[in-house]
Design a protein that fits this description.
Helix content is about 35%, strand content about 30%. Strands 8-9-10-7-11-12-13-14 form an 8-stranded mixed beta sheet. A hairpin with a 4-residue loop joins strand 9 and strand 10. The longest helix has 23 residues. The protein is globular. The two termini are about 35 Å apart.
């Protein structure tokens, strides 16, 4: 795998960012500081977003995707609202431009599959931005359970209601991260979904208790809401040989092992890195572009996690209505 220092000695990659909201501006900030990268500019139709990007990053801005593409780019990151992912990705991929699409990959599974097919047809790199995989605490948990017989996984991702979130609920905004982690930790597909959803203060679901079973037999659950006054992000994994606890915010990971018949056991803190997850993610994407390698999170993986998230949204509706309703969209 190519390192950032290796990349600096090669021709710089011309990279653009589409979307200058909070996430897109962060993309621009990180890309502007990476060796071997030329940040061509950031696209956003809103002048206030463009002005903020200029102020924070000092980069060139564009009001349309076409303007960015005319300026010439090798790769783009797409951090626009979810409902625009499909159109933007097809435009970029159709022009042979390597693309990283923020999660969720699209509003519907069908749109996601079209994006995957377009990347395959164009022969370019497509990666999905499931940034939590690049959290050093998550990486430490993944390493700790490697080759272990996993029995169960529990994930809590809660916090206060985000004022800027209006047309998407906690399943798409938050739980899709953890659906991806469950699939990644277990290297297995989710085959059973049992969701419990409620809307306490928002139009869409703001409380979700989700239970899953994977093809490999692992039981998993996700507890997520927008009703907790503080953020909490925790993961626990039980295997036959150990119990691993991770706090994704403090980045502390603890392993319990050596269980004895008298109830005693040993405990240790695991080493955890200090990388910025977004920086690690963008480096992984650009390395895949340079080496024509398999990206860290493939388009197919992004579609699979979206499909499970949408199943969580559809299932209670179908049960309550007694009939099939049109597929819900992952609005964003």
């Amino acid at each position: 795998m190519t390192s950032p220092s290796d990349s600096a000695t090669k021709s710089p990659l011309r990279v653009g960012v589409i979307g200058a909201g909070v996430m897109g501006t962060n993309h621009g900030r990180v890309l502007a500081g990476l060796p071997g990268v030329m940040l061509v500019g950031i696209v956003d139709p809103l002048e206030e977003h463009r002005n903020r990007a200029v102020e924070l990053i000092g980069c060139r801005t564009f009001s349309t995707v076409d303007e960015l593409l005319l300026a010439g780019v090798d790769a783009v990151t797409i951090a626009a609202p979810t409902h625009l992912h499909h159109e933007i990705a097809l435009t970029c991929l159709g022009r042979g431009i390597h693309s990283m699409v923020e999660k969720p990959i699209a509003s519907t599974v069908a749109e996601g599959r079209e994006i995957v097919a377009a990347a395959r047809k164009a022969g370019v790199t497509l990666m999905v931005g499931h940034v939590e995989r690049f959290n050093p605490a998550v990486a430490a948990i993944k390493q700790a359970i490697r080759n272990e017989d996993i029995l169960s996984i529990g994930i809590t991702r809660v916090g206060p209601f985000p004022p800027r979130m209006s047309n998407v609920g906690v399943v798409i905004d938050l739980a899709v991260h953890d659906i991806d982690l469950i699939r990644w930790f277990t290297d297995s597909e989710i085959t059973e979904v049992q969701p419990q959803l409620s809307s306490a203060i928002a139009e869409r679901e703001d409380i979700a208790l989700l239970q899953f079973r994977t093809a490999s037999g692992v039981l998993a659950h996700i507890n997520t809401n927008w009703l907790t006054p503080f953020k909490a992000r925790t993961v626990t994994v039980a295997t036959r040989g150990k119990y691993v606890m991770g706090d994704l915010l403090t980045r502390q990971v603890t392993e319990c092992f050596g269980f004895k018949a008298d109830g005693s056991y040993s405990m240790r803190h695991l080493p955890v890195g200090h990388d910025e997850p977004l920086r690690a993610e963008l480096i992984a994407f650009l390395n895949a572009v340079r080496t024509n390698g398999v990206p860290a999170v493939t388009g197919e993986e992004g579609v699979a996690s979206l499909e499970i998230a949408i199943q969580c949204l559809e299932q209670p509706v179908k049960a309550a209505a007694g009939g099939r309703k049109p597929p819900l969209r992952a609005a964003g």
